[in-house]
Amino acid sequence: MEFRPRNYVAEEQSHALPRSSADFHPLSSASPHTPLRQVDDNVGNRNNEEFFDPLIALDSNASVEIVDGQDFESSSNGNDDSVQVQMKEWTSFKRFLMQRFPVAKMISVSSMSNMIVKRGKAYEKSKTSMHLEELDDPQKSSEENAKVITRQEYVSRLHELKDEINRSWHEEDRVKSLKLSIKVARLLMDTSVSNFYPTLFVLATDVLDMLGDMVWERIRQKAEFAEDGTKVCSLPENFGASDVWFDAKETCYNWFCKVGSIRELLPRIYLELAILPCWRFLTEQPAESLQRLVMMTRGIADPLASAYCHLYIAHRAQKLPLYDTGYLITCVNDIKLVFTRISSAKETAHGCLADSKRSLVSLMEPAIEFIMKCIFNDASLRWVGKVLVELGLGRSREELFGGSPCVSIVLHHLLKELPIDIVSSHAVDIVRLIKCSNDYSYDQCLNYRLLGLRLCEQISQIGTVDSIVNEVIQVVSQCELDEYLKVVDAYLDIVLQNQMDGHLKTILEGISEIACDKVIAEDEMLGLQSILVKVLSHFKDLEDVFSLNHFLQILDLMHGSSHSIVNMHILDMATRNGCVRDPTSIQLLFEISQALHNDTDIANMKNDDNQQQARLISRFVRMVDHGADYEQHLAFIVECRGAFGSIIELKEILVHSSNCLATKALKDGKKHLSFVKSCIAFSEVTIPSISGHIKQFHLYLETTEVALLGGLVSHSAGLIDSALYCLQSFDWMEGSRAAVDSDGILSSIQKLCSLLIMVPGNPEVGILHIPKSILSIIHSQSWSPRMKTRIFCAIVSLSATLSQGRLPYHALHPEIMGNDLLFFGDSSYMHELLSLSESVLENLVDVIEQEPSRAALGSMSLEACNCIASSFKINEHVLHVCAKLIETAELCLSAKDKYLISTISFLDKNSPAATVTPSIAI
Q1: Sorting pLDDT into bands at 50, 70 and 90, what band is 62?
Q2: Which of 546, 547, 532 is nearest to 591 (CA)?
Q3: Which ranges of 440-521 would DSSP assign to H, the alpha helix?
Q4: Most-buried pick from 59, 81, 371, 732 (CB within 10 A)?
Q5: Smallest Cα–Cα separation from 755: which of 809, 804, 712, 803?
């Protein structure tokens, strides 16, 4: 066998494509001398196109019809959609009620709930507990009965009653259904267990709603069908009382008479509200009864029962087709009066009335919240003005907020529902109103906060921003830290977007003064987090943030997860806009990274949050740039390795940074050999601490390239030996938990073979010591036939290249001599190369035949054949091997396969005529 001589320069020139200079770059804007082809977008020709992109030609005739500022389709939707929305909102509201007020497992039952106890299991209170309760609160003890029942039994009994009412109705026993429904309504008179009342309200009104629906359907059936079942008429959706037959009206009137005869006021109101829609069968103006029912609720003495009765009025009124929401304003004014009485109640000697007030107001709050939503649902600005005047907040429609103070909790839900245009245009008046509306019903700071959040919805239309923010900051500066943070957080977007630097300075200074020498609670920490994150998000340059007075001082006060989140935002901002070069910023960010790393749970590094922290720290380290101060940058890298040793991916980045630093120093043109050695030593020490032999293998090869660039031959040889050791130690089962990148490993081994062309052989250990080590590793590993075949081919190509009189490329460093200068003409060197190639060829064919896939087998055979034919002169021995490979390929591939045809053609062209065998003839 004999290697084929190659002239790489001549081959490159022969295979190069002809080139000609261009007048302009093909990716630049079009030259004025080369007009672009105009695209014909004639609509009439679009049907003939194979592909039509609808985005490039919208229908010019398409338009959206607008009616009164709204889409025509949405305005002509009818009532069905609104009814569905109301039902979903009510269902959601009921779920919210039951979740907001959790109930104890045991419920005290008064005499009004005897029917619940009859079928449930009652538990007598012990004499000791009764005596203790009597000492604590004698009045309450005398009012309560000594019986208790479990919450689940109470709920189950109500569900049984609902089923019994439904069953009796369908058994034509409607009198029994009504009597049972009255008993259910009477349960709402019992407010002894106040926290259970919202749940009781939801369960009881479900029963009453069911009764109301059944009564409605019965009367409607009476109006549409005769006694014998024949259909008389069909009532339209918007029917009136004149469309209803006399028999149906009589039945309806009878139901209202039965309800009106109920002795107790509260059940009577609830039952009439349940059948409220049935007034449509009797009168053309069914909504007129709403104002009467609201007036009746003034006779309910218990404030909790009264509030929820008003809530049920608002709910059932939605069943009517058209109604004036004026009755809702009356409801709000009545509830305001109740709140005022609660707030004005005098403290008792025990001093526990304040907590009782807050608890009662909290229980009543859902009623005012729901009613306010109903009032301002789709309300016009004209109607809003009328509402504010009737609520006593404004003197006239021109002066909407010039009236008397408002109950805080009512004001809160009013602000939540007011149109943003009203809030923006009257913000100063609202601030004054909040300031003078301070009572037990709601925290005043939360109203200031809500105003800020509402103003953020339309910052651009706020006319007197500065005066509003100034007034609010002055008020809340006297508050505790938690309240201060809640309020200023709501106004911070306004301050930042309007570039109110003076107010920003005041806010940060206020936080620093209040929080100084104070143990910060978890809620307060979340407030600080929100404020600092908003500040960071507003500024583009991190140096501007650090220059803010008290920012770093506030950051030092933080701890825990909130501190980590702010630090993550800082690192993200620092690395978002390119490299970090300022030494002061680098040091500060390094300390922030250390704090973030110390807060990271190393045991749960796979957690998403911890991984994000590790990625941000790694990105910061990668973006640091000390410029020409290479020694300082290397010292920084060394410091990072010690500080962030638990972050595996960072160690890889450190190795890359070290190698990049060494490359920069070499390209700088100065003598930096000792510095390059330091960088390579850093990489050599760091790489073994990285988990995964394949990662180490890749990094060793990268460091080898740097060593060759610096002319460090002995370092290069040592790094290659370390890389081969990693390859030898690699256990294929390392990747059993994840897919092994076999193509990546193969590519790296081929890269190693290409590097060996530049590495001078060492006669002391053997000139071909490294290729032989690679062969040894191949034989020891259970790699796939495809992988082994390609590595064998790489070694054959390496041997053929090293045999040439002039190598295709050399190391850039002038002191590194190639093997063509060191060993060319040495017969022992050539003999060793041929011996290595022959040993490879002996195994190559056998390895190829182990491939199970026929398509892959054919491709591998052709690849090996081309490698052999390109590396050796074609003689009888080489042709015999190639013929065997061609024969295998012909059995696996189609006779028309282009790769197969071109390979046979290449062999024919380069083979002596006497040696051509019929097996490879075309």
Answers
A1: very low
A2: 546
A3: 444-455, 465-476, 481-497, 501-515
A4: 371
A5: 809
Distance between first and last Cα of the chain = 25
Beta carbons of 345 and 353 less than 8 angstroms apart: yes
Non-local (6+) Cβ contacts of 285 within 8 A are: none
CB hemisphere CA count around 32 (13 angstroms)? 0
**What type of residue is 506?**
T
Contacts of 487 (CB under 8 A, 6+ apart): 445, 448, 449, 452, 472, 476, 479
For residue range 327-345, list pLDDT tens digits in order.
899 999 999 999 888 877 6
Alpha-carbon span 357 to 366, nearest angstrom:
15
Q: Pick from 651, 716, 722, 725: which is nearest to 689 by CA?
A: 651
Mean pLDDT computed over every residue of the chain: 83
CB 448 within 8 A of CB 434: yes
**CA 439, CA 529: separation in Å to the nearest integer?**
30
The interaxial angle of helices 326-344 and 408-417, nearest 10 deg, is: 150
**pTM greater than 0.85:** no
- Cα dihedral 274, 280, 281, 285, rounded to 10, equals 130
Give the single-character DSSP code of 190: -
CA angle, corner 700, sides to 694 and 706, nearest 5? 145
Transcribe 107-167 into DSSP letters.
Answer: EEE-GGGHHHHHHS--EEPPHHHHHHHHHH-HHHHHHS-SEEEEHHHHHHHHHHHHHHHHH
Question: What phi and psi values does residue 142 have, to the nearest 5 degrees?
Answer: -75, -30
Structure tokens at 818: 């190639």
Q: How far apart are CA 450 and CA 427, in angstroms?
A: 12
130-177: pLDDT as tens digits: 444 444 444 444 444 447 788 888 889 999 999 999 999 999 999 999
Q: How far apart are CA 117 and CA 153, in angstroms?
A: 9
Which tokens in the block code for residue 191? 């407010």
CA distances from 640 to 208, 590, 644, 922 (A): 70, 8, 6, 65
The DSSP result for 675-717, as a single string, is HHHHHHHHHHHHGGGSS-HHHHHHHHHHHHHHHHHTT-HHHHH
Q: Hunting for tokens 């009577």 — which residue is that?
A: 268
Give the amino acid at 844. L
